[in-house]
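pinging the channel bc i need a second pair of eyes. not urgent but kinda urgent?? the chain im working w is below, pasted from the shared doc
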Amino acid sequence: MGTKGFFIRVLPFMATFTLGLFIASFFVSIAPSFGGGGRGFGHRHRKMERLRMENERLRSENQRLRKDLESRFGGWHNPRHGEDLGWNEDIFSNVPPVPVPPAPPRLAN
């Protein structure tokens, strides 16, 4: 392959590449940013610390809310001795029976 064949293959590629960079420069910055720009180890470290602090805050808030519920209702999971739950037996007597499931389809042999 001579120099003519080389230019015939490389010139369209270079022209297309240059045109693509020109058009892309309107939408994104092509220049490399070495200054950090909010990325890198320090940024990740700060982000992880922020997430750890938020998780700890949410954990303590959940614990506080659980204690508040337990203090208000005295362990709302278990009723106190002799305490009625307020359920009437007639509520459960009017429940309709469970419907019969449909028969499975038969397979043709």
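so The longest helix spans residues 41-73. and The chain has a mean pLDDT of 80. — does that match what u expected or am i reading it wrong
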